[in-house]
Amino acid sequence: MTRWTAADLARSPLTVQGGKPQVKPSLKYSNQPKYVDGILFDSKLEARRYGELKLLKMTGAIIDLKVHQRWYLHVGNVELGHYESDFSYLEDGKIVLEDCKGVKTPLYRWKKRHVQAEYGIHIREIKA
Question: How far apart, in whole angstroms, are the C-alpha atoms of residue 49 and residue 100?
């Protein structure tokens, strides 16, 4: 019987949580997920932007800050899917959606156009 060392386990794509083996998620675009205030952000850029928005909220420049809010996309009465904004808030009485972007995928570009067409809201992109 082969013994596993701690180094072998660290290299393994499997982890054990609650007695159940789970596969570690691979990172598509080499981003580094980060927790801030108990919220998991997909990247350091997104986590940093959250800190900036919290400061703006404290000064009163923005209100009603929400993280990872879903916007459902429809054609007629048929729901096609959803777009999840990194951040949404009110600025000068208008809804602002923000997305921290390193790579603009074709699916993201389509969802961005769909959100603008359906809700009349332009997504503000924060560049890496």
Answer: 8
User: Cα separation of 90 and 106, whole Å?
Assistant: 28
Q: Any idea of the CA torsion for 84, 85, 86, 91, to the nearest 10 degrees?
A: -160
Q: What is the pLDDT of residue 33?
A: 84
Per-residue pLDDT tens over the stretch 13-38 = 555 555 555 555 556 666 788 888 88
Question: What CATH number does the domain containing 43 carry?
Answer: 3.40.1350.10
Q: What is the pTM of this model?
A: 0.73
User: Based on the structure, what is the number of domains in the chain?
Assistant: 1
Residue 5 lies in a domain: no
For the chain, list the strands marked E by DSSP.
14-17, 20-23, 34-36, 39-41, 63-75, 78-91, 94-101, 123-127
Residue 15 domain flag = no
